[in-house]
Design goal:
By secondary structure, the chain is an alpha/beta fold. It contains twelve helices and six strands. A six-stranded mixed beta sheet has the order 1-2-3-4-5-6, sandwiched between helices. The longest helix has 42 residues, at 52-93.
């Protein structure tokens, strides 16, 4: 298995995206976590609706209990008021007018203060329960969503992650990386390589090229392969108005070539400072555009950029002739290692 250093830039950006759940440690976990959470939600929903008739019945029982409580409390107050009224009539017959007056006050208090106050609380409870029962009968989905809000939000966050424009690119890079990992241990894959030169260099007549980000770089005796991965749909290929994928990898290859030349090139200055000479010219460095959806073809405007599908990438690399010694490939890897993308 090939040795992998770092991780793809797009993968890192997705993992650091604010909606990416903390339990996702690796990009490949996103799809699995999303699938598991959706299955968990479906199971809970199935259990919820299996138990719904029983829950509705419980809510109906609770409403009936409140109604009975209201009825009992009303009867208690009515009986108490009736009892006081009887005492009033008795006191009238016995000319106990102070007691009559006192009992009239008690009747007023029970009838217009105590009874309404206590029944009002029960009425409010009854209204709430009626509304609650109505929701259980007419809109159980809403109740379920409220109960499982945290789980639904976690699923929603993952869907935001998957809708992110970077996600498709990361899917493509990870797929290509997994393919490259099938190479034997003579190969090293450097991910998310970011190289900045000391000075601007010329590209297509413009003195405007100084840095480049490379999706994947493979180093072995077969050479150095700068790989740009594009997981574009047919529509994206047709309507792209930005920097073309061909130019992206062409520019990246140019930056890497100049960088390696400055470290190992066959010139007196490089040899003096490094004590090493590695010829990276000719077939030493190859620009490769990998079309994940296999919908891009060779563009003669970029004659140094080769277009390969994922399935044919490894054969393309392994069938090349050796251009470096093992020690030279190792030196190149050690030189590029500090520039890979890390967590």
């Amino acid at each position: 298995m090939a040795k992998v250093l770092g991780l793809p830039e797009s993968e890192k950006e997705i993992l650091e995206y604010k909606y990416c759940p903390s339990q996702v440690d690796e990009f490949k976990d996103i799809e699995l976590v999303h699938k598991n959470l959706k299955e968990e939600l479906e199971e809970k929903k199935e259990d919820f609706f299996d138990e719904l008739p029983e829950k509705v019945s419980d809510e109906e029982d609770e409403l009936e209990r409140i109604r009975n409580k209201k009825k009992e409390r009303t009867e208690e107050y009515d009986d108490k008021i009736k009892e006081i009224q009887q005492r009033v009539e008795k006191n009238k017959r016995n000319n106990k007018w102070f007691s009559v007056l006192s009992n009239y006050f008690k009747i007023f208090f029970q009838k217009y203060i105590s009874k309404p106050w206590n029944l009002r609380k029960i009425k409010k409870s009854k209204a709430r329960q009626e509304n609650n029962l109505k929701r259980w009968k007419e809109n159980p989905d809403k109740i379920f969503e409220e109960q499982e809000k945290e789980l639904i939000d976690r699923i929603g966050d993952l869907e935001l992650v998957k809708d992110n424009s970077l996600y498709s690119g990361a899917v493509g890079e990870v797929r290509v990386l997994e393919k490259l990992e099938e190479l034997d241990d003579d190969y090293v894959v450097l991910c998310g390589l970011n190289i900045e030169l000391d000075d601007y260099i010329s590209y297509n007549g413009n003195h405007d090229l100084k840095s480049a980000q490379m999706d994947l770089v493979v180093v072995s005796r077969k050479g150095v392969f700068v790989i740009e991965v594009k997981n574009w749909s047919d529509e994206q290929v047709k309507n792209n108005e930005g920097l073309s994928p061909y130019e992206q990898v062409d520019r990246a290859g140019r930056v890497l070539y100049v960088f390696l030349e400055s470290k190992f090139g066959k010139n007196p200055i490089a040899s003096f400072f490094t004590g090493k000479e590695i010829d990276v010219s000719g077939k030493g460095l190859t620009d490769v555009l990998v079309s994940v959806q296999d919908n891009m073809s060779y563009d003669s405007n970029y004659k140094h950029v080769l277009v390969k599908s994922v399935s044919k990438l490894n054969d393309f690399i392994t069938n090349r002739e050796d251009v470096f010694k093992d020690s030279e490939a190792e030196e190149i890897v050690n030189t590029l290692r500090p520039y890979v993308t890390t967590k």
